[in-house]
Amino acid sequence: MEDIFLQYKGDAPKRNKTILQLFQEHNDRIEKLIDKEYSIATLWKFKQARQLLKDFIKYSFNKGDYHFKNLDLKFIQDYEFFLKAERSLALATTNKMIQRFRKIVNLLYIKILYIKSHLQVTR
């Protein structure tokens, strides 16, 4: 969140977050909440979703990760195509993988909106 705050202020962030880093942070939080809020099956599904996303990034960009700031609609469309064509996932499974990825993206946007609204109140 500190990096987002720095970007909002116009300062350079300490480091740019990557998609897989954000996904891992989310999965780490889920792991700590097993038997409290989440089941082990939920963690496994999010780990699978992260691995498929990692495979897509390697396949499409020949990189180990992808910066969140570069995320666009084409990335998501290409990811969906990859899941269907290269991994031969069924439509329902593809949709669940996209849904899990969307959750990670939405969590980051919620953090951004929170910081922006907090800054406006304190000014």
General description of the model:
The protein is 72% helix and 0% strand. With 123 residues, the protein is mostly helical. The radius of gyration is 16 Å and the shape is globular. The relative contact order is 0.15.
Question: Secondary structure elements and their pairing?
Answer:
Layout (H helix, E strand, L loop, with lengths): L1 H8 L9 H14 L7 H22 L11 H13 L5 H32 L1
Question: Which structural class is indicated by helix and strand composition?
Answer: mainly alpha
Low-confidence stretches: none
Question: What would you call the shape?
Answer: globular
Tell me the span between the first and last alpha carbons: 19 Å
Oligomer: single chain
**Residue fraction in strands:** under 5%
- Estimated helix fraction: over 70%
- Order of helices and strands, N to C? HHHHH
Tally of contiguous helical segments: 5
Biggest beta-sheet profile: none
What is the tally of beta strands?
Answer: 0
pLDDT averaged over residues? 87
Radius of gyration: 16 Å
